[in-house]
Inverse folding.
């Protein structure tokens, strides 16, 4: 390859951490560029339809956005050491974990960073000013970052259900899941063996930028769990060698607590969101982009109830998981269904999802 890929990303960005870890493991040559204010709001938006990171630009000049779509494209181009396991149960589980990390952990990521902003903000401010406003007077860039943060906190945290009253429930859930992940990584380097999978990349997004790098969660949530901390380090600095997935399409028993959250908490979250979208779908035309946040969902979490707005984009991600099952050969689909039946996971296949397509950072109703 005569030219490397160009990776527009930033350390403070949740999904940049996911894509960077993937590119490093696959040994895909790339140059990372921190997008400045103009690049972010003009150049990237012109090519992708949204001011967003991460973005990957191929040596041929093709602009790619959305980490799930990017990884899928890169896997076709760089088939060595595939991150989607070749066996049906592990492959389906990897897609579930990607969905869980990408979407279901969003309240956790935002809470870990912004409910402790007194300690976390200086690093965020430094990253944002250096990345997006190089060469600007510091007082101006700091003011812009502060104003942007105020807008985000006023809009984003409430839609995810994060507030002073709900925080204790989320803290309980976070402790449960981090303890379970720590126990798993005590016996296995990655989710499905000695090779990172698509599921690991879904998880590293929130567990690097927001929990594994920001000062408060790093000190209080990640570092005390030494096996989880070591996994974060392996993900961002992958060891030499490809590793292997467990033989015989096997899943470690230590994954059970996380799978319980996927089936007992995330699946009701998706079902609630799908029901809400079905309720309002008549107000939108085929092909029309949906609001980024809409309606209200309620679902079980850590023995309590969590309420947040629906993200239609999450349902597009769930649609990809269900589609992967529906595209399987009959024998492989039977294996996945049998596995789901043993752990109470069949409702994930029964979700009544309106047909969606991705439209930049949002979902749109699929056109007939």
């Amino acid at each position: 390859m005569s030219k490397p890929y160009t990776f527009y990303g930033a350390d403070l960005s949740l999904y940049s951490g996911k894509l960077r870890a993937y590119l490093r493991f696959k040994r895909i040559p790339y140059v990372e560029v921190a997008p400045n204010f103009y690049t972010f709001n003009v150049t990237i938006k012109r090519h992708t339809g949204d001011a967003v990171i991460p973005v990957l630009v191929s040596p041929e000049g093709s602009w790619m956005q959305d980490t799930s779509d990017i990884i899928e494209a890169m896997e076709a181009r760089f088939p060595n050491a595939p991150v989607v396991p070749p066996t049906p149960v592990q492959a389906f589980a990897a897609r579930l974990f990607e969905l869980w990390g990408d979407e279901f952990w969003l309240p956790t990521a935002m809470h870990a960073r912004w409910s402790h902003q007194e300690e976390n903000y200086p690093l965020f401010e430094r990253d944002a000013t250096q990345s997006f406003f190089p060469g600007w007077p510091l007082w101006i860039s700091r003011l812009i970052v502060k104003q942007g943060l105020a807008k985000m906190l006023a809009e984003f945290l409430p839609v995810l259900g994060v507030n002073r009253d709900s925080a204790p429930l989320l803290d309980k859930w976070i402790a449960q899941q981090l303890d379970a992940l720590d126990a798993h990584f005590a016996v296995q380097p990655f989710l499905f063996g000695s090779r990172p999978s698509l599921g690991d990349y879904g998880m590293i997004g929130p567990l690097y930028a927001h929990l594994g790098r920001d000062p408060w969660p790093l000190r209080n949530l990640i570092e005390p769990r030494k096996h989880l901390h070591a996994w974060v380090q392996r993900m961002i600095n992958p060891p030499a060698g490809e590793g292997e997935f467990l033989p015989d399409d096997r899943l470690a028993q230590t994954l059970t607590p996380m799978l319980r959250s996927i089936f007992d908490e995330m699946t009701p979250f998706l079902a609630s969101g799908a029901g809400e979208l079905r309720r309002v779908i008549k107000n939108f035309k085929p092909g029309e982009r949906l609001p980024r946040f809409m309606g209200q969902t309620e679902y079980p979490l850590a023995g309590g109830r969590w309420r947040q707005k629906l993200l239609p984009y999450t349902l597009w991600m769930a649609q990809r998981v269900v589609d992967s099952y529906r595209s399987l050969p009959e024998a492989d689909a039977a294996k996945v269904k049998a596995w789901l039946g043993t752990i109470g996971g069949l409702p994930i296949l029964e979700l009544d999802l309106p047909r969606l397509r991705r439209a930049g950072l949002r979902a749109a109703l699929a056109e007939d």
About this structure: DSSP finds 14 helices and eight strands in the chain. The first strand starts at residue 5 and ends at 8.
